[in-house]
Amino acid sequence: MTKLQYQILASLVLLLIVGVATLHAQPPPPPPPPGDPPCWPPPCIPVDGGIVFAVGAAAVFGGKKLYNSLKKDKGE
Asked: Is this model's pTM higher than 0.90 or not?
């Protein structure tokens, strides 16, 4: 791998780490007022857990495609 590819890979990894750390550093939401249901509509479905894995998988897939594209252009 060339120096540019190492720099791109290091930048992507750093951005991914900072992005995940920023997402997990958010304070929890305030508690709901008494008497209200915990969410609306009542059958609550959390969607935040799978999004992190989907974004991570997309970043890995995109990085692999970029790497293969750069490798193909050089003829290696």
From this structure: no
